[in-house]
Amino acid sequence: MKQLLASILFCLVGMTGTAQSLRAGLEQDALPWITGGYYAGGFVGTQHLRARILTAYVHKPSLIVPKGFTNNTVTAWAFVGDYFLKEDWSGFWLSGGLVRWNSTIQSDTRIETAKYSQFLLNGSIGYQWLLGQHFYVSPWAGMHILIHGPTRITADGKSFKAPLLNPEASLKFGWYFGGKSH
After folding, report:
1. CATH number of the structural domain spanning residue 116
2. pLDDT tens readout for residues 142-163
């Protein structure tokens, strides 16, 4: 899956030379790095619209892991579309897309590790500040809605109900290729 995402990103970035108004770039998100994971995202778009692909690995903080469980990790892949109110991709934006989570979790006894995959719909909102010719920073918040996958997760004979709604907030940093974002 990582190779597929990298190949798609390479093709999308390569397309920027074929269309005058097409823009592309790369971004990072602080949340996965803060939890000891990683994030890699790329985007391409024009005018008010942008398509993003990303992968991330997150260690969920213990305060949001179900009671009696520990070591909850998520490897995510997503394809999302962004809509900016301004054509230069500054200011408020809205986003939505499809996300796949491959997760692991252990009970507090840590005998076995449960593995499970889920598909979620994502909706997000944020605000993007352009800093100089190529760089931006964008605080955001979003909600993931479980649409497919197990709703009851079991490890070591203990189980919990997977939440229907998963809120998230973070800070993105990005870089545009070529000139300024418009």
Report:
1. 2.40.160.20
2. 999 999 999 999 999 999 999 9
